[in-house]
C-alpha cells in the first residue's frame, strides 16, 4: 500500500510537477550552515569549518542527484534527457549520422529479409493439421546417398499399405501433365498436373474448398474419370464459377468430371500443379501391380502415439522380403527410409538459405563493428568532456547510458529503414528465386518482427558499448591532462580500434572467400560443356496424346509434316525432334540387357536413360558422332529396331575394346520377352542436368510412332542468327496442323541452361554483392582509423620530421601502422575460412572448398584495397609541415 | 575517522521513525546527530544516505515536513511522524525484535543443547 502511494507521487513528480530543485537546495544549504555552526562552536575557523562540512556532506551535487532520482521516475526522465542530448549530437554531424544509419539499415534490412525467408520456408510448419506427423517414404538401397532415397513402385506401395499399423494413412503421387483442348473458343493449354491415390488429400488433412474429394471408387481401373482443380486454375480458367462442379473438361481428348476445388492455401508439392487426377483411371492392372517401375512419391501420416521408428520398420521389413523374392526378376530396392515432409519439401534450399543468412549476419556484424569503430573515434574526441562531467559528479553508468543512447538511436533509425528495405528485399527474393519452395508462404510474421527488433537493439548495444566503456572511467585527472596536450597517451583506445578493425577484416575475408568459391562454382556450372551446341537453338515441347494420336501413323504423320514445314522456314538451318534435350532433366530410364553378353548375376541390373530422336536430331544439336551412323529416314514405324547409344553406355556396358556397333540392346516395355534393338551408332556424351554426372543413354527412333513412347516431343530448331523471332512462326505452323495442340516451354538452349543454374547464380551473385559491400565497409573502416591516427599523431610526426625523419620514412611508418591490423585480420580470416568453407562444400560444383586460386585472389584483393584505404592518410601524414604541426597545439 | 559503522540499508528508516516518535519533530541535521548519539557514536551518518531515506518516508506518507526556525534561529525543514508512520514503526519494531530473538537463539553459546 505504502509503496503504491510512493509510486503515485513519484509519477506525479515525473510528469510535469514543478521542479523543486530550489527547495532541496535550500534545505541542503540550511543543513550545511547548521553543520558549520556546530563546528565553529568547537573553535575552528569559519573557513576550516566550511571545508570540513563540505567534505562530510560528500558532494552537494551527488546528494542533489540522489534526491532528484529518488523523487521522480529517474529512468524515464534520464532516458528522455539522453535521447534529447543524443539527437542533438547526431544532428551536429549529419553526414556521419546519415552514413551510419544507412549502413545499419542495409545490415539490418538484409538480415531481416533473409530471416523472414528462412523462417517462412525452413522453420514454419507446413500448413497441414499436425504437420509433425507427416513423413515421406522412399525406397532405398545401399547405393542411395545418405538421407535420400528413390521413388517407389506402386506394387511395393500397395504391399506396404496392407501391413502397416503405425501409419494412419499413406498415399502416392507423381507429376503428370495434360493437354486441355480448346473449350468454346479458349486456347488449348498444357497443364502441369498431379496424379495421386484417392486419399492423398485425406492423408495431408486437407478439405476441399468446393465440392468433394476422391473416394476409393474414383481411383480404380475403369472408373469414371474425375478431376480436382487447384484454386488458382479454378479462378483463372473458370472465373471462380462454382457451376463448374459436376461439368466435364477435356483432358488429352478424354472427358473428366470436375468433382472438387482445393483451397487456395494448398500448394503442395508445387504451386505449378493445376489439377489432380486419380492415378488408376489412366492405367492398366499390370501398371498398378508392378514392383519394377519406381515412379511414386509416398506421403504417410503417423498414427498418434505410434513410434516413427516402429512404423518405418514395419514397411521396411515388407520391402526387404520383396527384395529377396523379386530381385532376380527386376530392379528392386532393399528397404525404406522416412524423411519428414517439411525436410522433403525444403531440403534442397536449406544449405543455400543458411549460407545466405550467414552472409548477411556477417555483413551486419561488419556494419556493427564499423559503427563501433566510428563511435570510438568520436568518443575519443569527447574524452575530455566525459572527464569534466565525471569531475562534476556524473556517474559512470549514466555516461555509458548516454553514449549507448546515441548508438541505439542510430540503430533504431537504421532498423526502421531496414524493415522497409526488408519488405522490398523479401519480395524481390521471392520473385527472383525461381526454385524456392514454399515461396507462396513467405511473409513476415510476429517472429520476424521480433527478430528485427532484437537485432536492432543488439546491434545498438554491441556497437555502442565498447566505445562507451572505453571513453568513460579511468583516472579523471589523466584524461584532463591528456586532453590538454594531445600527444599519445591513448594507446588503449587505438588498440581497441585496431582490434575492431582486425575483426572486421577477418569477417570480410571469410565472406569474400565464400563468395569467391560460390562464384567460381557458378562459373564452372555455366561453362559446363553440355555435349551439344547451345547457340541460336530454340526448343519447344508438345505432347501428342489422346484418341487423335492413338495410332503410330497419326503420330509419325504429324511429326514428319511439322519437321518438313519447319525445315523450309526461312532462317532455319536445321531442325530435329527428341523427347528431352541435354540439360532438360533425367526424364526416365529403362532396364537393358545385352543379348550377346552372358547373363548378369542375380540382382545386377543395367539401366540407360530413355531418349528418342529423329534422323536429323543429332546434326541439328551438333552432337558428335563417335562411331557408326545416325538413323536413316526409312527407319520408322515397324522398321524401328535400331538404337543409338552414348559413349558412357559403351564405357560401362561394353568394357575393353568391344565394338558395340551391330550388337543389341534388349528392353521389355511392351512384351514380357522383350524386344532387341540393334546398335547403329555411338554419339558423344551429353549432360542430362547441369552439375550431375554423365549417365548411360540410349536413343530410339521417335518416328516409330508408338503412342506413349513417341508422344512426348521437343522440337529443336537451329538458326544462324537470333533464333527467338522464329518462335511465333513455328507455333503458327503447329496450330495449322492441330488447332487443339498446346505448345509449352518455348525456350532457347541458353535459357534452359540459365534456368538450371539459376539457383547457384542466385546465391553466388547475392553472396558476392554482400562480400563486396563488406569489403567497402572494411576499407572505409581502415581509412577512418588511419586518418584518425594521423591527426592524433600530427605533433609526433612534426617532431620526428623536425629531428630529421624523411617523408618516405613517415609514409612507410603510417602505411605499416594501418596495414598491420589488416594483415592480422587477413591471417585470421583465411584460417577461419579453411574451416568454415567445408560447410558449403555441398553446394559447390567442381570447386574445392580450399581452392587456392580463390584464396589467392581474395588475399590480393584485400591487400590491394587495404593499401588504397591506407595510402591517402599515410600520404597526408608524409605531407605534414613540421612547423605547422608543432604549432597545432 | 576511526572505525564507525555505516548504517545498514533498511534499518535507517526504522531509526528515523523511532527517533521522530520519541523525540518529536526534528530537522535533518538534528536527526542525523541524534541518530549518531543514540548509537553511542558507533554510526556515522552521511546526508547522502539520510536524505533519500527521508524522501522515501515522506513519499510513503510515514512522515511530513514543513519549514520552521531552528534553536539557533536558522531556517530549517522539520520532519514529523504521521499516524501511518507510527503504525509502520510498531509493525517493524515487532518484526525486528522477533528476528533478533531468533538470531540470538542461534548465536547463543551451545550449552543447553
From TrEMBL, chain B:
InterPro entries membership: Metal_resp_DNA-bind_regulator, Tscrpt_reg_PadR_acidobac-type, Tscrpt_reg_PadR_N, WH-like_DNA-bd_sf, WH_DNA-bd_sf
Domain (Transcription regulator PadR N-terminal): residue spans on this chain: 16-90
Gene3D superfamilies noted in UniProt: Winged helix-like DNA-binding domain superfamily/Winged helix DNA-binding domain
Domain of life: Bacteria
Any Pfam family hit: PadR
Protein name, per record: PadR family transcriptional regulator
Amino acid at each position: 500500500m505504502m509503496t503504491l502511494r510512493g509510486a503515485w507521487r513519484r509519477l506525479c513528480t515525473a510528469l510535469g510537477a514543478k521542479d523543486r530543485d530550489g527547495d532541496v537546495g535550500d534545505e541542503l544549504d540550511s543543513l550545511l550552515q547548521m553543520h558549520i555552526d556546530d563546528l565553529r562552536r568547537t573553535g575552528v575557523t569559519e573557513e576550516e569549518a566550511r571545508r570540513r562540512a563540505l567534505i562530510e556532506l560528500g558532494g552537494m551535487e551527488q546528494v542533489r542527484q540522489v534526491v532528484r532520482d529518488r523523487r521522480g521516475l529517474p529512468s524515464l526522465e534520464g532516458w528522455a534527457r539522453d535521447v534529447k542530448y543524443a539527437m542533438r549530437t547526431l544532428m551536429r554531424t549529419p553526414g556521419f549520422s546519415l552514413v551510419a544509419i544507412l549502413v545499419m539499415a542495409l545490415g539490418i534490412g538484409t538480415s531481416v529479409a533473409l530471416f523472414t525467408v528462412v523462417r517462412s520456408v525452413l522453420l514454419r510448419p507446413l500448413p497441414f493439421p499436425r504437420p509433425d506427423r507427416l513423413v515421406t517414404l522412399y525406397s532405398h538401397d545401399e547405393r542411395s546417398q545418405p538421407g535420400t532415397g528413390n521413388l517407389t513402385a506402386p506394387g511395393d506401395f500397395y504391399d506396404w499399405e496392407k501391413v502397416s499399423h503405425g501409419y494412419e494413412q499413406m498415399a502416392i503421387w507423381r507429376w503428370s501433365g495434360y493437354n486441355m483442348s480448346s473449350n468454346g473458343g479458349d486456347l488449348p493449354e498444357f497443364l502441369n498436373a498431379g496424379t495421386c491415390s484417392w486419399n492423398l488429400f485425406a492423408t495431408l488433412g486437407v478439405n476441399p474448398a468446393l465440392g468433394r474429394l476422391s473416394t476409393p471408387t474414383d481411383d480404380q481401373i475403369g472408373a469414371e474419370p474425375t478431376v480436382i482443380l487447384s484454386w488458382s486454375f479454378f479462378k483463372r480458367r473458370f472465373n471462380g464459377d462454382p457451376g463448374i462442379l459436376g461439368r466435364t473438361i477435356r483432358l488429352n481428348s478424354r472427358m473428366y468430371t470436375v468433382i472438387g476445388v482445393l483451397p487456395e492455401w494448398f500448394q503442395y508439392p508445387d504451386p505449378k500443379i493445376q489439377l489432380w487426377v486419380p492415378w488408376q483411371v489412366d492405367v492398366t492392372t499390370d501398371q498398378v501391380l508392378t514392383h519394377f517401375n519406381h515412379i511414386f512419391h509416398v506421403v504417410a501420416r503417423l498414427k498418434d502415439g505410434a513410434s516413427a521408428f516402429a512404423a518405418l520398420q514395419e514397411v521396411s521389413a515388407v520391402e526387404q522380403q520383396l527384395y529377396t523374392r523379386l530381385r532376380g526378376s527386376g530392379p528392386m530396392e532393399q528397404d525404406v527410409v522416412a524423411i519428414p515432409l517439411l525436410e522433403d519439401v525444403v531440403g534442397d534450399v536449406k544449405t543455400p538459405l543458411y549460407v545466405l543468412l550467414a552472409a548477411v549476419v556477417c555483413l551486419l556484424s561488419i556494419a556493427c563493428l564499423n559503427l563501433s569503430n566510428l563511435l570510438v573515434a568520436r568518443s575519443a574526441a569527447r574524452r575530455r568532456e566525459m572527464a569534466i562531467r565525471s569531475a562534476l559528479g556524473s556517474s559512470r553508468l549514466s555516461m555509458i547510458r548516454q553514449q549507448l543512447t546515441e548508438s541505439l538511436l542510430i540503430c533504431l533509425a537504421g532498423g526502421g529503414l531496414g524493415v522497409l528495405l526488408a519488405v522490398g528485399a523479401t519480395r524481390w527474393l521471392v520473385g527472383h528465386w525461381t526454385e524456392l519452395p514454399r515461396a507462396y508462404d513467405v511473409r513476415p510474421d510476429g517472429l520476424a518482427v521480433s527478430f528485427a527488433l532484437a537485432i536492432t537493439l543488439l546491434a545498438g548495444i554491441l556497437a555502442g558499448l565498447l566505445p562507451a566503456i572505453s571513453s568513460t572511467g579511468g583516472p579523471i585527472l589523466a584524461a584532463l591532462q591528456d586532453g590538454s596536450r594531445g600527444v599519445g597517451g591513448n594507446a588503449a583506445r587505438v588498440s581497441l580500434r585496431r582490434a575492431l578493425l582486425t575483426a572486421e577484416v577477418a569477417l570480410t575475408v571469410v565472406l569474400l572467400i565464400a563468395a569467391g568459391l560460390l562464384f567460381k562454382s557458378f562459373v564452372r556450372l555455366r561453362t559446363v560443356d553440355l555435349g551439344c551446341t547451345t547457340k541460336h537453338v530454340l526448343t519447344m515441347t508438345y505432347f501428342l496424346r489422346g484418341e487423335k494420336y492413338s495410332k503410330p501413323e497419326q503420330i509419325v504423320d504429324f511429326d514428319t509434316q511439322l519437321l518438313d514445314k519447319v525445315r523450309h522456314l526461312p532462317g532455319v538451318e536445321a531442325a530435329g525432334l527428341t523427347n528431352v534435350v541435354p540439360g532438360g532433366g533425367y526424364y526416365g530410364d529403362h532396364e537393358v540387357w545385352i543379348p550377346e553378353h552372358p547373363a548378369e548375376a542375380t540382382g545386377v541390373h543395367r539401366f540407360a536413360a530413355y531418349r528418342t530422336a529423329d534422323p536429323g536430331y543429332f546434326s541439328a544439336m551438333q552432337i558428335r558422332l563417335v562411331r557408326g551412323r545416325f538413323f536413316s529416314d526409312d527407319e520408322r514405324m515397324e522398321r524401328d529396331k535400331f538404337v543409338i547409344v552414348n559413349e558412357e553406355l559403351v564405357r560401362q556396358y561394353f568394357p575393353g575394346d568391344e565394338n558395340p556397333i551391330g550388337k543389341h540392346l534388349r528392353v521389355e516395355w511392351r512384351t514380357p520377352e522383350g524386344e532387341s534393338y540393334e546398335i547403329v551408332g555411338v554419339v558423344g556424351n551429353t549432360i542430362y542436368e547441369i552439375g550431375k554426372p554423365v549417365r548411360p543413354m540410349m536413343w530410339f527412333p521417335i518416328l516409330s510412332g508408338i503412342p506413349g513412347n513417341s508422344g512426348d516431343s521437343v522440337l529443336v530448331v537451329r538458326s544462324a542468327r537470333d533464333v527467338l523471332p522464329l518462335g511465333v512462326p513455328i507455333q503458327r505452323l503447329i496450330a495449322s496442323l492441330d488447332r487443339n495442340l498446346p505448345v509449352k516451354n518455348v525456350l532457347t538452349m541458353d535459357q534452359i541452361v540459365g534456368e538450371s543454374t539459376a539457383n547457384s547464380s542466385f546465391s553466388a551473385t547475392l553472396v558476392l554483392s554482400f562480400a563486396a559491400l563488406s569489403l567497402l565497409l572494411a576499407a572505409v573502416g581502415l581509412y577512418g582509423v588511419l586518418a584518425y591516427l594521423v591527426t592524433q599523431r600530427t605533433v609526433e610526426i612534426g617532431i620526428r620530421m623536425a629531428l630529421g625523419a624523411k617523408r618516405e620514412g613517415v609514409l612507410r611508418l603510417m602505411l605499416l601502422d594501418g596495414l598491420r591490423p589488416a594483415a592480422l585480420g587477413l591471417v585470421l580470416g583465411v584460417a577461419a575460412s579453411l574451416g568454415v568453407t567445408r560447410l558449403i562444400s555441398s553446394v559447390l560444383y567442381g570447386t574445392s572448398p580450399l581452392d587456392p586460386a580463390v584464396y589467392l585472389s581474395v588475399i590480393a584483393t584485400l591487400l590491394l584495397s587495404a593499401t588504397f584505404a591506407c595510402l591517402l592518410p599515410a600520404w597526408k601524414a608524409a605531407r605534414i609541415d613540421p612547423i605547422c604541426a608543432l604549432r597545432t597545439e | 575517522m576511526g572505525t564507525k559503522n555505516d548504517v545498514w540499508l533498511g534499518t535507517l528508516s526504522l531509526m528515523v521513525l523511532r527517533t521522530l516518535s520519541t523525540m518529536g519533530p526534528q530537522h535533518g541535521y538534528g536527526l542525523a546527530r541524534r541518530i549518531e548519539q543514540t548509537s553511542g557514536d558507533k554510526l556515522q551518518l552521511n546526508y547522502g544516505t539520510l536524505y533519500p531515506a527521508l524522501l522515501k518516508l515522506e513519499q510513503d506518507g510515514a512522515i511530513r515536513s514543513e519549514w520552521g526556525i531552528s534553536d539557533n534561529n536558522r531556517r530549517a525543514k522539520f520532519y514529523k511522524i504521521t499516524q501511518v508512520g507510527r503504525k509502520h514503526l510498531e509493525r517493524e519494531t515487532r518484526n525486528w525484535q522477533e528476528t533478533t530473538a531468533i538470531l540470538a537463539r542461534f548465536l547463543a553459546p551451545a550449552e543447553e543443547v
